[in-house]
Design goal:
single chain, 3 helices, about 170 residues, alpha+beta, disordered N terminus
């Protein structure tokens, strides 16, 4: 059962992901697109800052089809680590901007990291971006994505694009 779940997850992630070269091309195309001025105007009601946090603001470009995209928020920290797989304990929570119907996000962590425990003899340590839990949010070029991240951590993001709808076979 566990292997079936892994295979299904692999198929799903392959179906949803954009090929890296396609993503790079698309990223350049989106970056060249104009940012919706409405997104910049709509930043005003969001909190300016919080003690101990940095405010990240993502203005998404117009793309003609917001429904076909999602934004994955990825919070983490660059650390010098060994060959093991590392994971940062933390969570990105959605917060309500009272009175506006908008949401912003806050990454919280105590800084603990978990890792596998493989031996790494004769392998040098390297700098890696260690992530916590990620969050998929709706693509909306009319609103900024505002995320508060504790000092010492950073935010990255990735765009996901849906493929064309496929007809399911009847058995």
């Amino acid at each position: 059962m566990k292997s079936l779940a892994i295979v299904m997850l692999s198929i799903l992630s392959t179906a949803c992901a954009v090929h890296p070269t396609q993503a790079q091309t698309e990223s350049k195309t989106l970056a060249a697109s104009s940012i919706n001025p409405e997104s910049i105007k709509n930043l005003a009601p969001f909190p300016k800052s919080q003690a101990g946090f940095q405010r990240y603001v993502i203005h998404l470009p117009e793309n003609g089809n917001d429904e076909a995209y999602q934004v994955e928020l990825i919070a983490g920290k660059t650390e010098t680590v060994d060959c093991n797989q590392h994971r940062l304990a933390g969570n990105i929570a959605e917060k309500d901007l009272a009175g506006w119907g908008y949401s912003y996000y806050e990454f919280t962590t105590q800084g603990q990291m978990a890792s596998t425990i493989m031996a790494c003899p004769n392998r040098p340590k390297s700098e890696k971006f260690i992530t916590g839990a990620t969050k998929l949010v709706r693509y909306n070029n009319r609103l900024p994505i505002v995320v508060f991240v504790p000092n010492g951590y950073e935010l990255k993001y990735r765009l996901w694009r849906a493929q064309d709808i496929q007809a399911a076979p009847i058995n």
